[in-house]
UniProtKB/TrEMBL annotation:
<keyword id="KW-0067">ATP-binding</keyword>
<keyword id="KW-0813">Transport</keyword>
<dbReference type="GO" id="GO:0005524">
    <property type="term" value="F:ATP binding"/>
</dbReference>
<dbReference type="InterPro" id="IPR003593">
    <property type="entry name" value="AAA+_ATPase"/>
</dbReference>
<dbReference type="Pfam" id="PF00005">
    <property type="entry name" value="ABC_tran"/>
</dbReference>
<keyword id="KW-0547">Nucleotide-binding</keyword>
<dbReference type="InterPro" id="IPR027417">
    <property type="entry name" value="P-loop_NTPase"/>
</dbReference>
<dbReference type="InterPro" id="IPR017871">
    <property type="entry name" value="ABC_transporter-like_CS"/>
</dbReference>
<protein>
    <submittedName>
        <fullName>ABC transporter ATP-binding protein</fullName>
    </submittedName>
</protein>
<feature type="domain" description="ABC transporter">
    <location>
        <begin position="32"/>
        <end position="260"/>
    </location>
</feature>
<dbReference type="InterPro" id="IPR003439">
    <property type="entry name" value="ABC_transporter-like_ATP-bd"/>
</dbReference>
<dbReference type="InterPro" id="IPR050166">
    <property type="entry name" value="ABC_transporter_ATP-bind"/>
</dbReference>
Amino acid sequence: MSRSSAARSATNAATATGDEISPHLVARGVGIQYPSPDAEGGVFTAVDGVDLEVRHGEFVVVVGPSGCGKTTFLHSVAGLIPTTSGELLLSGTPIRGPGPERALVFQQPSLLPWRTVRRNVSYGPDLQGTLGRAELRERVDDLLRLVGLEGFGNRFPSTLSGGMQQRVNLARALAVEPELLLLDEPFAALDAQTRERMQAELLQIWEQLGMTAIFVTHDIKEAVLLADRVLVFTAGPGRVKTWIDVDLPRPRKPEASREEAFHSLEDRIWDELHQTPTP
């Protein structure tokens, strides 16, 4: 069992018995600022005073107006952007930089063009150096099957479609067996049919592996389809405006978007996004 599957099993067991269990990710008063390009010595506040908790094994989707800081916050959780104030904790440990317990899937595939699909997927474990050759080959084979790319291991990224490249990107993130999977609008550049197929496959992978996932999107339908809870950010600087529980049954398929309960949740999120933010 992977680390993420074990964590989700422990959470489910604790929930069933009524025991308390600490959240997986905690943000306390997180602020993120940059030097302002408009004024010498000034600062631009991208994220301001974010407090939140994400449970083990939960699928959280973050939505908000363009420029509200949701991607900045996600990259801070990944350890790529330092916080200016407050703290981020993963399983009680402060996040100080990148780590193998977190993996980030970018909007663009960002694959290494000189490496084959197989060698792109094995990139993280190669750097860690913790697996033997046979074990690494087995892990890569399992992941290629999981994302539907069995038989494509010796291809180079330039020979793949956009959807296939993003499957490789996802497999590469999963190769380090992260506890927390971070996804920054990973399907935004795909055509509608490929996007729908990738959403369904991502849900299957998440349900199978049991990891915690945080997914940023502008697409409200995508948010409802994927999420256990939707986190709505205010307009910039990004603050937590509200949480919306998505109490639709799982497993979910794209056909769920035709149901009245699905449309009702879309309307709630749309209303939250278009209300005037509280100062």
